[in-house]
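S.,

As promised, the 2-acetamido-2-deoxy-beta-D-glucopyranose run. Input:
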Amino acid sequence: MRLVRSINLSCFLALLSSFCLEFSHATDTIAPPSFIKDSDQTIISNGGEFKLGFFSPANSTYRYVGIWYAKVSESPVSPVIWVANRDKPLKTPSGILTISEDGNLVVLDGEKTILWSSNVTSSVSNMSARLLDTGNLVLQENTTGLITWESFQHPSNSWLPEMKLSTNATTGKNVQLTSWKSSSDPAFGTFSAGTYSFNLPEVFIWNGSSPYWRSGPWNGMIFIGVPTMKARYLNRFSLVDDKEGSFYFAFEFSNKSLPFHYVLNAEGNLLETYSINGKDWVVSWSSLTSECDVYGKCGAFGNCNPKKKVICSCLEGFEPKNIEEWNRGDWTSGCVRRTPLQCLKVSTGGKEDKKDGFLKVTMMKTPSLANWSSVFEDECRYRCLEDCSCMAYAYESGIGCMSWTRDLIDSQKFSSGGVDLYVRVAYSELGHKNEQGKVIVIVTVVIGIVFMAMCTLFLCRWMAKRRGGTCLGFHSEENLLDSKNQDKLQELPIFSLEELTSATNNFHLSNKLGQGGFGPVYKGKLLDGQEIAVKRLARTSGQGLEEFMNEVIVISKLQHRNLVRLLGGCVEGEEKLLVYEYMPNKSLDACLFDSIKQELLDWKKRFNIIEGIGRGLLYLHRDSRLRIIHRDLKASNILLDEELNPKISDFGMARIFGGNEDQANTKRVVGTYGYMAPEYAMAGRFSEKSDVFSFGVLLLEIVSGRKISHFYHNEQAASLLGFAWEMWNMDNLSTLADPKISKSGFEKEIFRCIHVGLLCVQDFAKDRPTISIVISMLKSEIVDLPHPRQPAFTANQITSENE
Ligand SMILES: *[C@@H]1O[C@H](CO)[C@@H](O)[C@H](O)[C@H]1NC(C)=O
Ligand SMILES: *[C@@H]1O[C@H](CO)[C@@H](O)[C@H](O)[C@H]1NC(C)=O
Ligand SMILES: *[C@@H]1O[C@H](CO)[C@@H](O)[C@H](O)[C@H]1NC(C)=O
Ligand SMILES: *[C@@H]1O[C@H](CO)[C@@H](O)[C@H](O)[C@H]1NC(C)=O
Ligand SMILES: *[C@@H]1O[C@H](CO)[C@@H](O)[C@H](O)[C@H]1NC(C)=O
Ligand SMILES: *[C@@H]1O[C@H](CO)[C@@H](O)[C@H](O)[C@H]1NC(C)=O
Ligand SMILES: *[C@@H]1O[C@H](CO)[C@@H](O)[C@H](O)[C@H]1NC(C)=O
Ligand SMILES: *[C@@H]1O[C@H](CO)[C@@H](O)[C@H](O)[C@H]1NC(C)=O
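Predicted complex:
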């Protein structure tokens, strides 16, 4: 490529350093025989983002090889994001950066002594070093393209977009930042920052080998110890975890045209900084905002609250270990338990039967070194209570069950965000009143439950025997459920086929509410008057009975106000039925596309519906442990309650029907044409982003009052999207909006919605926002929306690669 040949000769001939400078600007590569010579030769990345060359830090005359932002100013004003010879500076501008004969990138002094080397052992010839626009310097073999070394794997103090901070169990190598000694000395300082996992991956800063700061675990969207991260969701962080000890964190910056990075400064503070003009750098976040952010500030069982005058206190039920020290403000010894734990596992029936309990502390940075399990909240609590060594537990929907079996260290009270922490204390610390009355009530309730359970069990067995069916949840022989979890046995109400047949008037046609993708749905009324919706599943489910049951129980646990509740199930012989809550206002399409009912849906209601669907979807994608992709989101699958609140139905059906959610590729494409993302419709590839596509279509339908399928029959496939795109380009969104809402004085909101809708239906999955970002956009938490690209299905295009 653009090789700088014989720079020396050019310089010599030109006798003009400016010419030399210009010449060297033309390349991003060092390849033998070319090299960089101090003082003013540099290479510059192809797009002009970064420069590599010799520099002196502020207040220093020593010379180092480094990489800095090239756009406006020169170092030392422009931050240096990487340094080669950190510990071995040159005292005079006599250095050379070149590629040695063994294929390593080396810094040489005037005597040709190696001060620094990339230290790759496998010697390869034909190597060249290239500075990329990401700021990464790569050492590459020319013909094969094999990268033997890259600066992103050997960072200095800066973490840039696309750089991965990683822990690798396979290679034993961790990629970490290390601080400079001071702002004028790039030598290795005492602080480092990187990833660490004790069951749950986190970002840590260490002072030497001691933890100095921690981010708290990652919940799929933010680090829960960094509650302010919510406001900066646009800088998409991601965790890639192979669950075998190797993982990395990386991030993208939303505005690629601005220089942006994190830097670990000499004081051990991790700063997020960016610059608009290349000269002035703004710090938009820092890891240490108060004393409480210093790891373990208040010692064991202490709780740090930066809003308090005295920041450290003991967790409730605990007292300072050394009261004198504590009162002096030396909190390092921490706190100890006021009353020893009883830890009674089994009820002994005596007066001593006073079990330990939990005190709830809200909005917490959870302590360090949590154990983790995937169980749900009540199981999490139960397990902790049953394990005498368990000191506390917490449950976060994006993480699961966390518990602690050792001292609770590094807890902090936030004023917003955070997680509820349940700390185990002795019975007498729980603050009981009215004990006698409580005991009587509890005993009565327990007797009642036992009695009812026995009755149900008896009845169920009896009915099952009579019809040769299965009693979900009470089936003792085949053990449908995990036998270890006896309390799971009462999770899902069972309905007998007889009960459901009678409730639906023998599945009478007049009771039929609709036909879903997996079978017809009937309205029913139980004997106690409760109205239900019964889905009679098509008989050809690929699943066995056991998997079906387990799946139904799992799905029934997904509870969210924007999801239709699954009330129970029934399996008898060939019949498989699911029982849902009944929604009086039927489905969204029945309302939205009906000229009379449409009047009910003013803009506020429509927006509420859009937002509700978004929240339901967010729960499925992110907040539920299962990470469910709906795959058939459409107007007829959105049901409306009395107040026209939307509830998503048919979620988890792909799971119930044996579709493997872990596999992002399916031969069996379920879904409805028009709502299906191109990569799903054409290649069977589904992901959260294919649901986002369907959501976008739905959003445009709701705003425009037009059915996607109407357009579909008009030849040009799915051209509601085409129409929307045309109106967008003509800046004529009021034509697209439903006339019933467009004069409501909410034009701005309506247009914003359309804009978001267009972002959701973009052709390429990677361009579409995630549902959490969609919600932030709808709520105007994200103000500047990107410009949408042309939606799918608007031109006669067949894209083969839609990832
Ligand atoms: C350089 O030295 C001056 C004067 O001592 C000081 O004000 C400035 O902060 C120093 N700059 C850096 C980056 O250390
Ligand atoms: C290169 O390797 C040698 C020997 O293993 C080591 O002493 C030296 O510090 C390494 N240099 C760098 C820059 O990693
Ligand atoms: C080095 O590159 C040249 C041309 O690019 C090629 O002919 C030669 O085989 C390469 N040498 C090695 C060792 O790969
Ligand atoms: C390696 O590639 C670079 C850039 O593509 C080129 O300038 C250089 O001449 C090549 N080196 C060799 C030894 O082929
Ligand atoms: C870092 O650790 C060193 C050695 O233990 C200690 O002297 C220093 O005060 C610590 N720095 C901070 C900022 O805590
Ligand atoms: C760990 O290193 C191995 C071997 O280099 C690599 O294949 C793997 O992708 C790495 N894992 C992570 C999570 O970086
Ligand atoms: C990125 O930042 C530049 C400079 O501030 C601004 O002009 C541009 O609009 C921003 N782009 C986005 C997509 O926010
Ligand atoms: C917590 O984890 C440790 C080690 O990882 C293990 O020994 C201990 O049994 C676990 N405790 C619980 C309650 O899961």
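The domain at 2-152 is CATH 2.90.10.10 (Agglutinin, subunit A). The pocket of 2-acetamido-2-deoxy-beta-D-glucopyranose (ligand 3) is lined by residues 125-126, 142-143 (CB under 6 Å).

- D.
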